[in-house]
Structure formats: C-alpha cells, structure tokens
Design goal:
It is a single chain. The chain is mainly alpha-helical. It is about 75% helix and about 0% strand. It contains 10 helices and 2 strands, in the order αααββααααααα. The chain has a two-stranded antiparallel ribbon. The longest helix has about 30 residues. The mean pLDDT is about 90.
C-alpha cells in the first residue's frame, strides 16, 4: 500500500514538473519585471489563493475541501500563467505545514494545473460556440465554468485518494463527494462576482475579455 502511495506521489511530482516546464509561459517573466501594476496583480493573486486554500473543511482526515477560484485566475491570465501562479501558494501551504511536502506534486496536478486548464478549455468552448455577449461571459464562462470545474476537481481528487488506498470508494462518496452540491453555488458565485467586478473596474486585468467581442455587438 505504501508503495502505491509513494508511486502516486512520485508520479505527481514528475507530471507537475514536466507540465510546468513544457508549458512555461515565456511572456510572463519579462512582463512581470517590466510592469509594476502587473507585479501587484500577480502578488495579490498569490495572497488571495493562499488565504482561500488555507480555509479547508471536511468530514474526515485527508478529505478536506476548499474553494479554487482558478476559473477567475485562468480568465485573467490564461491557464499557463494561472498554473504558474498557483505554484507559489501551494509551496506556502507546505511551508506553513498545511500540506504535506510529499503531496505537493499531486496537489499541483489535481488542484492547480488541471482546474486551470479545464477552466480555460471551457472558456474557449463558450467563446467558439456561444454568442459573444457580456452576460454569456459572466454567467457561462465564469459562473457555470467555476461550478463545473470544482465538481470535476472533486471527482478527480476523490479518484486519486481511492487509488492511494486511504479510504474505500463508498466512504469517499459518503464523506467527500457528497459535498459537491454544497460547493457548486459558492464556487460559481465567487468566480462570477470576481469576474463581474474585474470586467467593470479593471478590464485590462482580464486577458480573455475584449470590448470588441463582448460589448460592441
């Protein structure tokens, strides 16, 4: 059993390292160094993520849940930069003893990289197949996107926990996956409200939002 857990942890580290290296956004560092406003925006994102991810709840040890808000981050930065930003609060969680060091790799893949990529993928689908309207952007690309992303994240994380052998699938369903309906609306509302405020007051911070697409119809 310990061999299975160690194998998953090593696979998590390897997968996270490869994905982050291959998909490293080359435009990020020059922009970060050159623009102070962008520095403040990125650092604020790190602080908000760390605070939100620190607030966990759960019915059993190892089956904690927390809000992601990676849909907002992906809409603002793109999924590659969102995943890169998510590395910092993940490491901070480990430094403060809120995340076991051995689980950093799995956490990065399951709770950062996959949700960021999925959120951006769902945005791209709405951009391609739905009417480009402000309310579609807010309610579908942000609100519904956030709900669907956290649901898939919970299912994926539950599967990883089951593969690790910590709990039976029945126990995971009754004590972890049962919380999905309770998380859908708050996560959706959090992302929807954040994106609404950003497109109104700081549209230049939202990389995927363009006036010509969503307002000038």
């Amino acid at each position: 059993m310990s061999g299975m857990v160690s194998g998953l942890q090593l696979a998590g580290f390897a997968a996270a390292a490869v994905i982050l290296a291959v998909c490293f956004p080359r435009e990020f560092w020059p922009k970060f160094c050159a623009e102070k406003d962008y520095q403040h925006w990125v650092l604020a994102s790190v602080v908000v993520l760390f605070l939100l991810w620190s607030l966990t709840a759960g019915l059993a040890d190892g089956l904690q849940v927390h809000f992601l808000v990676l849909t907002t981050l992906s809409l603002c930065h793109g999924w590659r930069i969102a995943a890169l930003i998510g590395v910092v609060p993940t490491l901070l969680l480990a430094v403060f003893g809120l995340l076991p060091i051995a689980q950093i790799g799995i956490y990065l893949v399951v709770s950062v990289i996959v949700p960021a990529w999925l959120s951006f993928l769902l945005f791209r689908l709405t951009y391609r197949y739905l009417t480009r309207h402000l309310f579609v952007y807010i309610f579908v690309a942000a609100f519904l996107n956030g709900a669907l992303t956290i649901a898939i994240h919970q299912l994926l994380n539950g599967g990883i926990i089951w593969l690790a052998g910590g709990y039976s699938w029945h126990y995971i369903v009754d004590n972890y996956l049962v919380l999905i309906p309770l998380l859908l609306f708050p996560e959706a509302l959090l992302n929807g409200m954040a994106i609404t405020l950003l497109v109104v007051y700081r549209p230049q911070w939202v990389r995927t939002f363009h006036d010509n697409d969503y307002l000038n119809q």
